[in-house]
TrEMBL record:
The chain crosses the membrane at residues 38-61, 73-100, 112-133, 145-163. This is NnrU protein. It is found in: Membrane. The keyword DNA-binding does not apply. Keywords: Membrane, Transmembrane, Transmembrane helix. It comes from the Bacteria. The lineage of its organism: Bacteria, Pseudomonadati, Pseudomonadota, Alphaproteobacteria, Rhodobacterales. It comes from Paracoccus sulfuroxidans. InterPro entries: NnrU_dom (IPR009915). Its main location: membrane. GO terms for cellular component: membrane. It is a multi-pass membrane protein. Residues 9-168 form the NnrU domain.
């Protein structure tokens, strides 16, 4: 499959997975229960995000700006903060985490496919963050969630080469 075609299909699938379930949430929660729906939807989202990221890596490389060492350091400093936000803040924290994660990766990955990928994810996350803040959502920071975030970051750092084919090390 052509790299741009796969990237387009992965992007369309990821975006559709975040639009269609909103319309089907009530019957899916009825059939699976709230917990079953959240687990299934989370797994589907993670699988589609992984496909989208790996498809961006397989798309033809069109450099827009060169990567510098400081950009990798930026990602390595921003991602632990993003994960801590994600595990401590409910949906608002998750959207803030995605925005920070996407921003750092957008800066560090100056090729066309990754700029499209992380740019769209940043816009999506900022939109979700805005909606969450309008609803009055709040962060719930606890030491256990911070420890979970640090452990999750360490695991993702170690698994990054296996999951994406790219080492996060500067």
């Amino acid at each position: 499959m052509d790299g741009w075609v796969e990237f387009g299909l992965a992007m369309a699938s990821f975006l559709a997975s975040h639009v269609v379930p909103v319309r089907l949430k009530t019957p899916l929660v009825g059939a699976l229960g709230r917990r079953g729906y959240l687990i299934g939807y989370s797994l589907l989202s993670l699988v589609l995000l992984w496909w989208l990221i790996t498809a961006a890596g397989r798309a033809p490389f069109v450099e827009l700006w060169p990567q510098q060492v400081w950009m990798r350091w930026l990602v390595n400093l921003a991602v632990p903060v993003a994960i801590a936000l994600g595990v401590t803040g409910g949906m608002v924290g998750l959207m803030a985490a995605f925005a920070l994660w996407a921003s750092a990766h957008l800066i560090a990955n100056g090729d066309l496919a990754h700029v499209i990928l992380f740019g769209l994810l940043l816009v999506y996350a900022l939109f979700g963050l805005m909606l969450g803040l309008r609803k009055g959502a709040r962060w719930r920071v606890t030491p256990m969630r911070l420890a979970l975030g640090l452990g999750l970051w360490a695991g993702l750092y170690l698994l990054h080469p296996l999951l994406t084919g790219v080492s996060p090390a500067p």
